[in-house]
What does this fold into?
Amino acid sequence: MEILAEQMRRAGLPTRLEVEGDPAPVPVGAQLTVYRLVQEALTNTLEHTPRGTGARITVQCGTDAVTVVVTDDGPPSGKGDTVAGLGLRSMRERAAAHGGTLRAGPLPGGGWEVAARLHLGHEADPAMERASAMKRTPATGRASAPKRTSTSARKRT
It folds into this structure.
């Protein structure tokens, strides 16, 4: 996760990472899902907020669940939690595959929050994971940090 945060910093998004608890007992599938959720949330921040916006990642690892919250301090969007493109839909599917939930929306006074909770005792549904991955996998198969855009519109995908 620190590598992802560093990639975002290099792409122009000041990013703080906090991990609480021991991530070692978290199953690999859940770890990958957390990584992808954070990656998508940060990518949305890079693409839909102005330069100077900062992000914070908080991961809490417990014995029965892992919770991840990604927030940014961008300007208010004027849109509610109903804004949902392919990215947010895919994120919800990934969380659901682990018996979890995901919510995303604007914060009071500005900024955006994506919060997910994955249940560790829940066997991930491989069909949902594959379907979600196929929708979002780039043709090259490589992941890279996107470049910051100058747009200030906050439409989340």
